[in-house]
Amino acid sequence: MASMVLQAISGPVLPLPNESAEMMKRRVGIFGGTFDPVHSGHIEAVHSFLESGLIDEVWVMLTPDPPHKRHRSKHTPYKHRLRMLELAFSETERVKICTLERELPQPSYTLQTLQHLTTTYPDTRFFLCLGEDSVSSFHTWHRYRDILSDFSLMAVKRPGSDAVEAEDEVLEKTIFLEHKPVDISSTAIRQNGSDMEQMVPDTVAAYMEEHELYT
Ligand code: ATP
Questions:
Q1: What is the CA radius of gyration of the chain?
Q2: Helix (H, G, I), strand (E, B) or coil at 127
Q3: pLDDT < 70 positions in the chain
Q4: Fewest 10 Å CB contacts: which of 7, 37, 97, 194?
Q5: What pLDDT score does 32 carry?
């Protein structure tokens, strides 16, 4: 009996049943935003999330009306923001555009979205993908500690933001990825219209022109 136990101890270290189930899961990063409009900062961020090797896919989650942007009078209609996202990522493998938050109760709290996804896709492990500014303000998000206790954060640097402003408890759960920062925001595009066309893909610029967005 004693030698059987010893044999088991000296053999290869096998993952426990739960651990191995966890390792088999597909890994998906959720990258949420208003995308009003999508721009090269978002696109380069998605490439860095995918190139990290930590996740298999990115699901870009279009938020109808984000709780932290309710002060803004109105957003560009959802259908235009969605179409621009579809155009921006149409050629990118391993990226899906996700409209789930349109179906869920408002406001679109990230915790609610992640919990819903985890229940719907039990074979998938979800990560939260963010730009650096969102890491810095993460402690203001609805029930952010509950997000941190169940999900890891993956982040990319963003000019004009500094993660030293982030809370330690947030940084402890955040992986910063290799990334060449891109100095652009949707706000700048909304304010400067066609002058900023070079910061969006040609197909998105053409769509903006056709629908007279941000003029
Ligand atoms: P706005 O100017 O309207 O506030 P935004 O440019 O910050 O918009 P959002 O749609 O709010 O874009 O951002 C969605 C996600 O993309 C957030 O996690 C944000 O941190 C990240 N992000 C946006 N722009 C960049 C950028 N240039 N570099 C890295 N991350 C970015």
A1: 20
A2: strand
A3: 1-17, 66, 68-73
A4: 7
A5: 98
Residue 5 domain-assigned (yes or no): no
Backbone angles phi, psi at 83, to 5 degrees: -65, -40
Question: Which pLDDT score, from 0 to 100, does residue 22 have?
Answer: 81
pLDDT on residue 149: 97
Query: Which SS3 state, helix, strand or coil, does residue 91 take?
Result: coil
Range of the domain at 67: 17-210
pLDDT, mean over the chain = 90
CATH code for the domain of 108: 3.40.50.620
The reported pLDDT for the residue numbered 103 is 96
Pocket of ligand 1 (CB under 6 A): 33-36, 41-42, 45, 130-131, 133-134, 156, 158, 182, 184-187
Q: Ligand 1 center to residue 161 CA distance, Å? A: 11
d(CA 56, CA 28) in angstroms, rounded, equals 6
141 CB-near residues (< 8 Å, 6+ apart)? 68, 109, 110, 147
- 2 lies in some domain: no
Residue 90 lies in a domain: yes
Counted domains in the chain = 1
- Site to probe by mutation for ligand 1, drawn from 133, 136, 191 as the one with most ligand atoms within 8 Å of Cβ, is 133
**DSSP β-ladder status, 153-156 and 174-176:** parallel
Question: Does residue 10 belong to any structural domain of this protein?
Answer: no
pLDDT at 13: 62
pLDDT value for 215: 87
